[in-house]
Amino acid sequence: MACRVAVIGGGWAGLAAAVAGVQRGAQVTLFEMAPQLGGRAREVPVDGLPLDNGQHILIGAYRHTLALMRTVGASPEALLLRCPLALVYPDGSGLRLPPGPAIPAFVRGVLAYPGWGWRDRASLLLAAGRWGASGFRCAPHASVAQLTRSLSPAVRQQLIEPLCVAALNTPTERASGRVFLRVLRDALFSGAGSADLLLPRASLGALLPAPAQAWLQSRGATVRMGQRVQQLQREGSAWQMEGQAFDQVLLATSAREAARLAQPLAPAWAARAAAFDYEPIITVYLRCPGARLPLPMMALQAGPQAPAQFVFDLGALAGDRGTHGVFAFVISGARDWAALGLEATAEATLLQAQAAFAPGTWPVVPTVLRTLAERRATFLCTPGLDRPPAAVAPGLWAAGDYVEGPYPATLEGAVRAGQAALAAALAG
């Protein structure tokens, strides 16, 4: 008899677990309390436009995520714009990695960085050499700020800070140096194409949730939408839940929801899962008919009066969705701005947009289309963070980007966690 597996939560971790379960012959039932799949990476229609709850990107190193997309029939080649890593500012400065083997491409990109002197370039190349010699490891309690203090101020401000907040959604002075180095290793130094930016040409729903749901249902899995699991009960060797019996249960929910369900069964694990601190991400969508940016994605100089670190030209990425003249300004590490309020944040972003680009970029004055905040976008990825294991109790597993692992809260981290939890459940 096939193993009966319940997956609670239909975000990217839950979808990864459910697909892996079907592939391995399990009888899978997926529960999702929201009316749509996707979790924190989902489509949110705005004024009839298929926008998202935040602008997510993938990179070439996200091999598990890309393989999962292909499995469910979502072609990365068709749905993602692949381009070499370019963190370019409106004035034309920034890091551009040329195609080719990883290490030579990095060296060439650093040496060609406009506006940097030889001390800036040497400080980064020497530091990268030390990180590589150490196996991209550092002391568990080192922050990114401590890890990079030998770098010049220009390198820290123009490269390290935007990379850190993009990857970890945590300011450098509070971010884990160990996790940051793992991201750098996999993205910049793990093979040709690993650092490539993969920018969505379609909504997040089309990247995975919609095709995964169709794939699961076509193969006999049950997907129950709009149903929040209230409690878990163990009766003999089976779990009783929502009138059904299951052999294995995977908690692919948020850490807080997993803690609620696990608390009566594993209070110590639940306490660890409930203890995370979170960092928001705010996305300000601006509209300016007729406007185009030099690149589909550009870096911005953030500061006390300038919230956003990146901007995306959605018309250049997905103009067939009616998004010509729509721009997504992304504010990571947005705790202070969230405290000021979304209206104030949007007003500051509008001023930043007008000031950052050359005259003529905006044919007319941009207007705010919508401001969206994901209040618990990611856990605060601090040094020595206590992340709970995937094993919660016999037959009960956690599958989320917050469980023990080397990655921050990313789509790839979620997918890997879901697949790993499913494999452990069936092995146990």
Task: Please explain how this structure is put together.
- With about 425 residues, this protein is an alpha+beta fold.
- A 6-stranded mixed β-sheet has the order 10-2-1-14-21-20, with helices on both faces.
- It has 3 domains: about 5-45 and about 55-65 and about 205-275 and about 385-425, FAD/NAD(P)-binding domain (3-Layer(bba) Sandwich); about 85-195, no CATH class; about 280-380, Polyamine Oxidase, Chain A, domain 2 (Alpha-Beta Complex).
- About 35% of the residues lie in helices and about 20% in strands.
- Helix 1 (about 10-25) runs parallel beside helix 10 (about 210-220), helix 1 packs parallel to helix 16 and helix 2 packs across helix 16 (about 410-425).
Short description:
This protein has 16 helices and 21 strands.
CATH class of the largest domain: Alpha Beta
Poorly predicted residue ranges: none
Question: Percent of residues in beta strands?
Answer: 15-25%
The SS-based structural class is alpha+beta
Biggest sheet: strands, sense, closure?
A: 6 strands, mixed
Q: What's the helix and strand layout?
A:
Layout: E1 4-8, H1 12-23, E2 27-32, E3 43-46, E4 49-52, E5 58-59, H2 63-71, H3 76-79, E6 80-83, E7 86-88, E8 94-96, H4 102-111, H5 118-133, H6 144-147, H7 153-168, H8 177-188, E9 197-200, H9 204-207, H10 209-218, E10 222-225, E11 233-235, E12 238-241, E13 244-246, E14 248-251, H11 255-262, H12 267-274, E15 278-287, E16 297-299, E17 310-313, H13 314-318, E18 326-331, H14 335-340, H15 342-356, E19 367-379, E20 391-393, E21 396-398, H16 411-427
Parallel strand pairs: 1-2, 1-14, 2-10, 14-21
Antiparallel strand pairs: 3-4, 5-9, 6-9, 7-8, 11-12, 12-13, 15-18, 15-19, 16-17, 17-18, 20-21
